[in-house]
Amino acid sequence: MFIQTESTPNPATLKFLPGQTVMEAGTADFPTSEVAGKSPLAQRIFGVPGVTGVFFGNDFVTVTKDDGTEWDHMKPAILGAIMEHYQSGAPIMTGEADASSGHAEHEGEDSEIVGQIKELLDTRVRPAVAQDGGDITFHGFDKGVVYLHMQGACAGCPSSTITLKMGIENLLRHYIPEVTEVRPVGV
Description:
- By secondary structure, the protein is an alpha+beta fold.
- The chain has helices spanning 40-46, 71-88, 111-131, 160-175; strands at residues 4-7, 13-17, 28-30, 51-56, 61-65, 134-142, 145-152, 181-185.
- The strands form two sheets. Strands 1-2-5-4-3 form a five-stranded antiparallel beta sheet, covered by helices on one side. The protein has a three-stranded mixed beta sheet with strand order 6-7-8.
- Strand 7, helix 4 (160-175) and strand 8 (181-185) form a beta-alpha-beta unit.
- InterPro entries: FSCA_dom_sf, Nfu/NifU_N, Nfu/NifU_N_sf, NFU1-like, NIF_FeS_clus_asmbl_NifU_C.
- One of its GO terms (molecular function) is iron-sulfur cluster binding.
- This is NifU family protein.
């Protein structure tokens, strides 16, 4: 098994490509080891000292590290953990896998606008941020403000504010006049 690695715009995050499907549908975000219980692979990766976050996309695993650990020391152990997991035959996720879009539900008078926002996110934004090892999902819409949840390499990335303001906000405002601003939300 050959696992490729790619850097991301976030220096604290690396993208690992195992050459096979990681998530059949949707994504899975493990911002702490405490929430990794339903994923044997995430648990294995969190066993590597210095790992602070794990994110699964369709064909990649994104790993975030703490500031005090160097990639040179961590990367071989992470590659080993991913390889061991795939060789073990264990599932990526146990129990019911959440195959939702990752977007929050929204009911009410703005549902048509929210549908347009989600469609633009799915067709224009999410494929681009997946290339960088992350994901951005809809969290809410209130009085012209779109709230988005940043995951994987996007969470804590120094350039995420620029991506939100200059990229996503401009895109949404162009196509949906009711949108006035885009803001990130915490976990």
